[in-house]
Specification:
The chain has about 80 residues and is of the alpha+beta class. About 20% of the residues lie in helices and about 15% in strands. It has one domain: Alpha-Beta Plaits. The radius of gyration is 14 Å and the shape is globular. The N terminus is likely disordered. The protein has a two-stranded antiparallel ribbon with strand order 1-4. A two-stranded antiparallel sheet has the order 2-3. A hairpin with a 5-residue loop joins strand 2 and strand 3. It has 2 helices and 4 strands. Bound molecules: iron/sulfur cluster. The site of iron/sulfur cluster has 16 residues, from helix 1 and strand 2.
Length: about 80
């Protein structure tokens, strides 16, 4: 039997893990843009400035940026769970 310390997402690639799940609530977003500024590979903004979640399952290398975006969001519109 094959075990990993962190499960890989079904159908994903070897560098994509289930370890972190990002959630973005566009109804709470106020368009401050901090998320896209500190984690542009994970977040963007639409034409109205509202958050667009680009990657709900970040690579391990992007998890710190995801946590930083959560901490900086003034509307508490984004969260992470593990
Ligand atoms: S930092 Fe928060 S309020 Fe600002 S764009 Fe991102 S999700 Fe929206």
């Amino acid at each position: 039997m094959f075990w990993t310390s962190r499960p890989y997402r079904r159908g994903g690639t070897a560098r994509t893990v289930l370890g972190m799940q990002i959630t973005a609530d566009r109804t709470a977003c106020v368009g401050a843009g901090q998320c896209a500024l500190v984690a542009g590979e994970l977040f963007d903004q639409d034409d109205d400035g509202l958050v667009l979640l680009l990657e709900p399952h970040p690579d391990a290398a992007d998890e710190t940026a995801a946590r930083r975006a959560v901490s900086l969001c003034p509307a508490r519109a984004i969260s992470v769970s593990e």
